[in-house]
Amino acid sequence: MPPNSDVIELGPSPDTTDVLCETDAGPKGTASDLSTLKSTDGRKLELVWINIILFIYVHTASLYGIWLMLTTTKWQTDVFAVILFSLASLGITAGAHRLWAHRTYKANVAVRLILLFFNTLAFQDAVYYWARDHRLHHKCTDTDADPYNSKRGWWFAHIGWLCCKKHPDVTAKGKLIDLSDLQRDPLVMFQKKYYLILMPIFCFILPTLVPVYFWGESLSVAWHVPALTRWCLMLNVVWLLNSSGHMHGKRPYDRSISPTSLVFLIWLRYGEGYHNYHHVFPWDYKGAEMGRYSQDLPTILIRIFARLGWAYDLKSVSMDMVRKRVLRTGDGTHPVWGWGDKEHPQEDIDSTTITYKKKVK
Ligand SMILES: [Zn+2]
Ligand SMILES: [Zn+2]
To answer: Domain Fatty acid desaturase: where (predicted)?
Structure first.
């Protein structure tokens, strides 16, 4: 994340991570197993004022940016800002999240370069650190070792975690996360090494200069709209997943964990709205079920890459596995309970394989 001054240097990379705080559900789900782990020690937060001041400026300037969008900007600037927002979101969802943090698919050099470019546009720290924090979030969800522990409240999970020093458990367990796959990826390591040069160029300087140079936008509008406001809105959408995405919504796949299906993000179609599904099946490249559940921008992009032969080994979860999990641990809000359900989407029915069909005489 932005000025994440508290960078953890890697220790030796052990085979066992010792950070497996999240277990598979028992007969009654995981709630009883994890209730003792999922708490905070209530320690006083040590504020990082430089980040707080930066975020106050960015959010105030973004309010001004929204005002400019409503009153002053040229239409080309608005379109440019939306395009940049979309590309940056893909750099996080299809890139840092699904490709590098979870390894839900593999990709060739071209795809990795494209996604690293998009990712640098988003300025949410280098992929290497983003993936480390995110793996830790999945391993230790809702404990003090979770960088954006939602048990500390909505504000902490949303932005507060970047405004104070890390909990010692985050630092300690973070060192144990295996990042050897990322260390073997020269492109990821290149981005990490040159991040403080690449990030300002791609996230702020080019988004400001392009509108000024190509369609005569004013410098102030170009700085406030496609650079700052676009970045700030993107940050808040991703943060929503850590805050509301662990508090508000249904839990169709596992009622005993905090992640939810977040309608707002599902509606946006930028991906990751099915956060309850994602925490249950984090290796699924779609981050959602088949059919209408997986029609979001990153999934479409990954499929395009796969058609070109640039992405491969896409992992997903069978309908049968999803159904079993829904029946075993879901909260009863999953809209489809089985074959023949009235609300079963036609797309899902069409994409279902039926083998050993009964022979009609
Ligand atoms: Zn994830
Ligand atoms: Zn989560």
So the answer is: 75-282
